[in-house]
Amino acid sequence: MVGYREKVALLFQSARGKRYGTLVAVLYFFLFLFALGNVLIAGSDRKLTYEDTPVLQILSDWPEKIFKEMRPFNYEAIGAFYLTPQMGILISPMNMLLAAVLSALVGLNILAVVFGWEQPKLCQYKGRGLLLSLSALLTGFSCCVPTFLLLLGSSLAVFTVGAIAAISLFYPVSVVGLAAGFFFSVKRIRIA
Amino acid sequence: MERGLIWVGALLGLVFAGCLSTETLAGETLHMPPEPHEQANFTPQQVQVAEQRLAELEANLVVGNPRKDGIPAIDNPTYVSAQEAEQFMEDDDGIFGIVYQGTAKAFPQKILVWHEIVNDQIAGDRISVTYCPLTGTVMGFRGASLVDGHALTFGTSGKLVNSNLVMYDRQTDSEWPQMLGAAINGPNKGNQLEQFPTIWTTWGRWKARYPNTEVLSLQTGFARDYGYDPYGSYRQTNTYYQQDGPFFPVLASSDALTPKKVVIGIKFEDGSMAAIPKDELRANGILSGTHNDQAFVAIYNRQLEDALVYSRTVGNETLNFRLENQTVDEETGSEWNIWGQATSGELQGTQLRYLDSFDAMWFAWYAYFPDTTIINP
């Protein structure tokens, strides 16, 4: 009987799975931070920086802010890094940690999906848990209003209060769903 | 089987998050900003709103997504000169201007949209400039606690009523809906803040009128993308600021005007309310009228593109105003500026009594004050 660890090791033998998993995880990491408003991209009509803006800014009172939760699963930034005048990132270590956890789970699920494609007789995981990762991308807020509702317009305002309550749950639901998806995909690998 | 187990896991996540969110609703933030304890230079006033109405507003508080202070007030504002501000301000950027005790200050809308409250000190007075992007309201306040007479400073409670910012005071934790300007609960319940005039205009117009103005700097103590307004833009016509209705529940609604139509709401001294559509006032340039036997004048300044409202009664006399090159009173021919001061003529140096008034989106004004009268110039 093959143990759980051996099955995981088997998954990691898929070079294509590791490649795709890593790629998607990295993309998801930045996509999640973008959804939270931490990845900044300015259009051609404006700049993120001005003459005296340093490339790297760290707030002097960063120890007070680093664990300050502005809203559920969204933490205060302690600085900013500007790659170009049009592109930058607000540095929020806690948000980066949240993004890392989620993107690692997304990567593992992709690994399992690719393994399932390569070895359909051994594993039939279709990656349903990945659907939950999409919900985490809806957790971004603009001030008081969920960003996705703001984009859809206030004709959907009747859902605002309900959406706010639900969105607070999206991150943990994504984590648990992705973790469960990966766990059971490994468990169901059929090898003698 | 596999799909079922994944969803079971997701439900467990819901329970886990539910535990967290319960704590969220009742919990406090880890970091509490400083609470100045200074005696205020003025005395508290009682709100002219029925107890029942305060209870109704409290019962309809909506817990938003941000935590208490999740939208952080600026407690240690720093300012730059108009020249230095040119680096990050465009002429058509919106600003909220005040002239307090002779000091002109500009608060860029693009900064306040991320902070909503600036607690400042001018000439020994603790003042707060507050802005709610959801209702398009900017209001300047100063207040004293009913408990000990200490000057009040404010933070964001994370709650809304009528889609409008609800502040809390750092001294007693009472909650104050911005547009009401009064506390609806806590030790300061019924306490009415004193409002001072604010001007909503553009940077280009403000600096032309007040070249020595101080401007709130980008060094707010927070990292934000200050060039980006999450709600849209006042330069456009198809964003939240112009289109559709509110995102949050309101206590009353009216089709008399479109929801985002900007009105100048006026709180009269007898507790009655009125609203002047701003576009119509702009076209007319002045409104010298009477509401509930209270004579008032709305003085529109074409240079600043904004208006403030005053009582027309000076001493025992009621003045009548008309627009020439500048606002003048018919009785003495004295000229008056937007701050309600006679700048020339027989009454030079006289100050009209300011009536609490501010720009607001119609839906929000009506939601708070459904007994309002619409006054068309």
Description of the structure:
The complex is a heterodimer of chains A (192) and B (377). Chain A has 192 residues and is an alpha+beta fold. Chain A has a domain of 131 residues. Chain A is built from seven helices and eight strands, in the order H-H-E-E-H-E-E-E-E-H-H-E-E-H-H. In chain A, strand 5 and strand 6 form a beta hairpin. Chain B contains seven helices and 28 strands. With 377 residues, chain B is α+β, with helices and mostly antiparallel strands. In chain B, a hairpin with a 2-residue loop joins strand 21 and strand 22. The longest helix of chain B has 25 residues. Chain B has a five-stranded mixed beta sheet. A four-stranded antiparallel beta sheet of chain B has the order 2-9-10-11, with no helix packed on it. Chain B folds into two domains: 214 residues, no CATH class; 113 residues, 3-layer Sandwich (Rieske Iron-sulfur Protein), CATH 2.102.10. In chain B, 48% of the residues are buried. Chain B is 18% helix and 32% strand. Chains A and B meet through strand 3, strand 7, strand 8, helix 6 and helix 7 of A and helix 1 and strand 2 of B.
Q: For the residues shown, what is the average pLDDT of chain B? A: 89
Mean pLDDT over the residues of chain A: 87
Strand content of chain B: 25-35%
Summarize the main sheet of chain A: 4 strands, antiparallel
Helix and strand element order of chain A: HHEEHEEEEHHEEHH
Tell me the overall shape of chain A.
Answer: globular
Distance between the termini of chain A: 6 Å
Which class of secondary structure composition applies to the elements of chain B? alpha+beta
Short synopsis of the structure:
The complex is a heterodimer of chains A (192) and B (377). With 192 residues, chain A is of the alpha+beta class. Chain A is 53% helix and 14% strand.
